[in-house]
TrEMBL record:
Keywords: ATP-binding, Nucleotide-binding, Transport
Pfam families noted in UniProt: ABC_tran
GO cellular component term of the entry, any: plasma membrane
Boundaries of every ABC transporter domain copy: 2-223
Family annotation (InterPro entries): AAA+_ATPase, ABC_transporter-like_ATP-bd, ABC_transporter-like_CS, ABC_transpr_LolD-like, MacB-like_ATP-bd, P-loop_NTPase
Nucleotide-binding as UniProt keyword: yes
Name of the molecule in the record: ABC transporter ATP-binding protein
This protein's record includes keyword Disulfide bond: no
Gene Ontology molecular function, alphabetical: ATP binding; ATP hydrolysis activity; transmembrane transporter activity
Domain of life: Bacteria
Length: 223
């Protein structure tokens, strides 16, 4: 599903690449968590996988789409039709209620499915909040809405950047469990960047980003 080969990304004025000859193979429906020190390149890697940034070298293949500057139309179609992104910041539209915030992306993609949206909201425990505005929600509720919005169009890949980073431990565990559960139900490939050992260990394949490359993470332990 996702094949990354010898990926390199170096920012101007940096002495070493933040991503350095990184290789990763992820099968369809697999969940992968990525931990690492602050500033080690976790968010950069997700941005590269989403096509938001361009690599200096190497290749990223997601399904039959090669993310590269000479295949920009393919990359745009992938982002529009197959990708779901969950950010640490909720990025909800203040002028829309919960239902319309979740439906917004699906409407843009032309794949509105009200019964399925109901199912996603039920699973995430936010169905009773459908008429509420974002300003009336707690942080955990807002993050659940953001996750629902990323999943409602049935993406083949979800990239989640610190999806529980702003939440307390109990809420973090609940939100992470819901995210993993729905992606497993959809056979959606899930890549989660997190600082939380508890969130990371729920993934089928926990990994650690160090010196620009990915390594297998311990099964248990600290950050």
């Amino acid at each position: 599903m996702i094949v990354i080969k010898e990926l390199v990304k170096q920012y101007p004025h940096a002495t070493t690449p933040i991503i350095n000859q990184l290789t990763l193979n992820v099968v369809k429906g697999e969940s992968v968590s990525i931990r690492g020190a602050s500033g080690c390149g976790k968010s950069t890697l997700l941005a590269l996988m989403a096509g938001f940034e361009e690599a200096d070298a190497g290749t990223i293949q997601i399904g039959n789409i090669a993310l590269s500057c000479d295949r920009e139309k393919d990359a745009d179609a992938f982002r529009r039709d197959q990708l779901g992104v969950v950010f640490q910041s909720f990025n909800l539209l203040d002028c829309l209620n919960v239902w319309d915030n979740i439906a917004f992306t699906a409407r843009l993609k032309g794949v509105v499915d009200a019964p399925y949206q109901e199912h996603i909201m039920d699973t995430l425990g936010i169905a009773p909040l459908r008429q509420k505005m974002p300003s009336a929600l707690s942080g955990g509720e807002q993050q659940r809405v953001a996750i629902a919005r990323a999943l409602v169009h049935r993406p083949s890949v979800v990239l989640a950047d610190e999806p529980t980073g702003n939440l307390d431990e109990t809420t973090s565990d609940q939100v992470a469990q819901a995210l993993y559960s729905i992606c497993a139900e959809l056979a959606t490939t899930l890549i989660v960047v997190t600082h939380s050992n508890e969130v990371a260990q729920q993934a089928q394949t926990p990994m650690w980003l160090r010196h620009g490359t990915l390594h297998a993470a311990p099964v248990a332990g600290g950050r």
